[in-house]
Write a structure and sequence with these properties.
mainly alpha, 5-stranded mixed β-sheet, 11 strands
Length: 839
């Protein structure tokens, strides 16, 4: 491609004529192209059209992100999903009804009876305040939507915002020196995030959980950090701190941000990439962000006291925050002192820095050593040591989303992105900038944490989409450039015509070059100078020839470099076309998988279940049936005991007081319920009666094949209960190390309360008592309940509710045991001793 004449090369060319390509340029350029004003107008028009097209594509991506999450509403109904969202919905109802001040001071006496819970100080308020603000705004605009409707559609709305934030993070900033990648990569990454199944699983319509808004806050905070790093603007630094504050309000995963950014700052310092922009991007975030985070009641002083925050404020405050200030001071001193004085100042600064760091490190070690868990929470320790929860905290290990993922989980949640991520990492190194190094660090850390806990696949999804968007954009750019470079050859003229034109262009510069020496000889002949003058002229001519040859070599080197670079990027036409076709097929496969995941895998609400069989679709609405029965057939002050999974739903849908719920903040209270379920009927009745429980709810799936029932969760009840009350031992419930409910089950298992409440009258369903989940007949089929009575069982036997019998109505044994007269006196003497019902 011909380039316009660069006047800066005249110095290199000397007095010689410019290269032939530049002398021929005016003859080869069309008149319309030669006018710079018209070219400038065409460029601005093209840029404006590209901007409008980009905005239109972003709107389509936002619409896609919103609409693909509506399958749950279309196939089922507008209903809240899962367990935790019901608590968030109940809190939002309270906020919209009573106001913000009553919300902060709300003491909920319907949870964790008899302890209760201070809602304002134990909840992340970001989701609730966001949905409440949307409801308030819509009602002020005379759009009367219910609180439930707003809660159902909050997650799809913020998924569109997350896609747009991904575009901002991935696209090139104005200064290409600090870019992540271009606009094409940004649009591709946004489209991938709009459909990625891992994010859909937490943001479908009805999934009213903290992650619905937190992922947007996470991506937007990263974008503002990169923006501040690129511009060095305090305005963007302040916005970054505010965005981080919103993230702190929304989700406990904010600790990922406050640990990842210091790691990137340390990486930039170590690799010699320090600048004032780095200081402005990090220092205000740590100071202002920490102050704002401490204003959130659930965080409070944890923002500076726990080890999760030490990474940014204390531990890496030594390694990053203090180092950053030391480096800034060194650069400042270096600019104002002489080299000799600079060495003296450096010695002084290093000495003081080592002393301060040693003092802070000593204080830190003392604080950490005083904590049994070294200042780390149980969930954080389980991230650093995947075996920690299973060894020491079974309540964390019992949650399915805290388990490590399997390889099929990666293919299910990010699909083909797993294969594109390595290519995106390679592309980020070409060239490596501050922004691209941050994205590489983001993907590396998120891959590790997602391998520890399946829930954190949600954090991996944006990073995988960014890397895949970069890989796809770079691949399409290379393949389309190859096609564009070779496509005109198919429409060229015949080879003979091309050869004539080439000869003409080659002959013309030689004619011009041959004319120049003849002119010089004519002038010398006319002047007829002396011999001295002739020798001087010969030397000048020889020097001119040398300069001319050197200039040709330099220009050949300069002109050949871009040509060689282009030749390296050009692929065969057929290979480029096939590669683009394969990428399109890969994208189509990704779209089909995402639509299937959104429509089938992640749209079914856990409270309403469906199954397909030869006779059609079956709907199981047993949960709402049971909660409706509790709401209409029990007193308002009655207490309901169940495993903690169903606490939020019971409180929100039945409006009854529960003993434990999904907050799991009190391990002893949960262990008490687990001990009652693991005990025989009489000790279990004593425990529940001491807690003022009137009804017990169990979930049973043996009839319809529902695998997430309480029998499958029972071993976790044993482990959690045994962790607090040693008389509950897991081996007592296992036969040869196997968990069984058939005739070979242990007597302890066959006589525990969970077994009896689940399988009471079960043999009446088919005459055999065949459990479809466990695939076997139950061991103990015919038995009576002495301390509990069945009051309600749903249509498909999925939820069973029992009532504690009062002491005077309890059924005694058929015959009283004969007592020995010698022991009656000892028994009477022990009557006044109060027995601990939990032993």
């Amino acid at each position: 491609m011909l380039q316009p004449l660069n006047l800066n090369r005249i110095h290199r060319w000397g007095l010689q004529s410019p290269p032939a390509s530049h002398r021929l340029l005016p003859c080869l350029i069309q008149p319309s192209m030669a006018d710079p004003s018209e070219a400038k107008g065409e460029g601005s028009l093209r840029k404006a059209f590209g901007g409008v097209l980009g905005v239109f594509i972003l709107l389509l991506i936002g619409t896609l992100a919103f609409s693909i999450r509506l399958f749950s509403v279309i196939k089922y109904e507008s209903v809240i999903h899962e367990f935790d969202p019901y608590f968030n919905y109940r809190v939002t109802q309270f906020l919209t009804k009573n106001g913000i001040y009553d919300f902060w001071n709300w003491f909920d006496d319907r949870t964790w009876y008899p302890l209760g819970r201070v809602i304002g100080g134990t909840v992340y308020p970001g989701l609730t305040l966001t949905a409440g603000s949307i409801w308030w705004l819509l009602n002020n605009l005379n759009i009367p939507l219910s609180v439930e409707t707003v809660c159902v559609f909050t997650a799809p709305i913020f998924s569109a915002n997350a896609a747009w934030a991904t575009y901002l993070l991935t696209k090139a900033p104005p200064s290409h020196q600090f870019e992540v990648k271009g606009t094409g990569a940004g649009l591709t990454a946004a489209a991938l995030l709009a459909m990625v199944p891992s994010y859909i699983s937490r943001s479908v319509a009805g999934s009213y959980d903290n992650e619905a808004v937190a992922i947007f806050a996470l991506i937007f905070t990263f974008y503002l950090y990169i923006k501040t790093l690129n511009t060095g603007s305090l305005f963007y630094a302040t916005l970054n701190a505010l965005s981080y504050f919103y993230m702190v309000c929304s989700w406990g995963g904010y600790t990922f941000i406050i640990n990842l950014i210091p790691m990137h700052v340390l990486l930039c310092i170590v690799t010699g990439r320090y600048s004032s922009r780095l200081y402005i991007a990090y220092a205000p975030l740590v100071v202002l962000g920490t102050l704002l985070a401490s204003l959130v009641p659930v965080v409070g002083f944890n923002a500076v006291m726990t080890s999760e925050h030490f990474a940014s404020f204390l531990v890496k405050c030594q390694e990053v925050f203090i180092i950053l200030h030391v480096v800034a001071l060194v650069y400042y001193i270096k600019g104002i002192l002489s080299p000799k004085m600079f060495k003296v100042a450096m010695t002084l600064v290093v000495t003081i820095g080592i002393a301060v760091c040693s003092a802070v490190l000593a204080i830190l070690i003392a604080l950490v050593a005083s904590s049994p868990t070294k200042g780390w929470s149980g969930r954080s320790l389980s991230l650093l040591d995947p075996t920690y929860a299973s060894k020491y905290i079974p309540i964390i290990a019992s949650v399915s989303e805290h388990q490590p993922p399997t390889w099929p989980s990666y293919f299910m949640d990010i699909n083909v992105l797993a294969f594109l991520v390595p290519a995106g990492i390679v592309a980020c190194f070409l060239p490596l900038s501050d922004a691209s190094s941050f994205v590489i660090l983001y993907i590396a850390t998120s891959v590790y944490f997602s391998g520890v806990m399946v829930r954190l696949m949600l954090v991996l999804a944006p990073a995988a989409c960014i890397m895949s968007g970069i890989a796809l954009s770079e691949a399409f750019d290379a393949f389309t450039r190859s096609i564009k470079f070779q496509l005109p050859k198919l429409f060229e003229a015949s080879p003979s015509d091309a050869g004539d034109t080439n000869r003409g262009t080659q002959d013309e510069p030689t004619k011009v070059d041959n004319n120049t020496p003849t002119e010089k000889t004519e002038t010398t002949a006319k002047e007829r100078p002396s011999e001295k003058h002739r020798k001087k002229e010969k030397k000048k001519l020889e020097k001119g020839k040398e300069i001319k040859e050197k200039g040709k070599e330099n220009t050949d080197k300069v002109s050949n470099k871009p040509l060689n670079a282009k030749k390296l990027l050009v692929l065969p036409l057929e290979a480029s076309a096939v590669a683009i076709l394969l990428l399109l097929i890969l994208g189509a496969f990704y779209v089909v998988h995402c639509v299937w995941a959104a429509a089938e895998a992640y749209s079914a609400p856990s409270i309403v279940l469906t199954s397909h069989s030869h006779d059609g679709l079956h709907v199981f609405d047993d949960f709402r049936e049971a909660y409706a029965w509790l709401k209409h057939n029990t007193d308002v002050d009655d207490k309901v005991a169940s495993w903690w999974d169903y606490g939020y739903q019971t409180t929100a849908m039945a409006n009854r007081t529960v003993i434990v719920d999904n907050n799991t903040w009190n391990n002893t209270h949960i262990a008490t319920v687990g001990t009652a379920m693991s005990s025989p009927e009489k000790p279990a009745w004593d425990i529940f009666n001491s807690l003022d429980v009137k009804y017990v709810l169990v979930v049973f799936g043996g009839l319809v094949g529902y695998s997430s029932d309480d029998i499958n969760k029972f071993l976790w009840m044993v482990r959690i209960g045994g962790g607090v009350f040693p008389h509950i031992r897991e081996p007592d419930y296992l036969r040869d190390g196997q968990y069984r409910i058939d005739a070979h089950a242990t007597p302890t298992m066959l006589n525990c309360l969970m077994y009896k409440l689940s399988y009471y009258r079960f043999v009446e369903t088919d005459g055999k008592g065949f459990d479809r989940v466990r695939g076997t007949e139950i061991g103990k089929k015919h038995f009576r309940l002495t301390h509990f009575e069945e009051v309600f069982t749903t249509h498909h036997w999925m939820v069973r509710i029992y009532k504690l019998k009062s002491p005077k109505n309890r059924i005694r044994g058929k015959s009283k045991k004969k007592t020995n007269p010698k022991t009656t006196s000892k028994i009477n003497s022990n009557k006044n001793v109060k027995k601990n019902p939990w032993q």
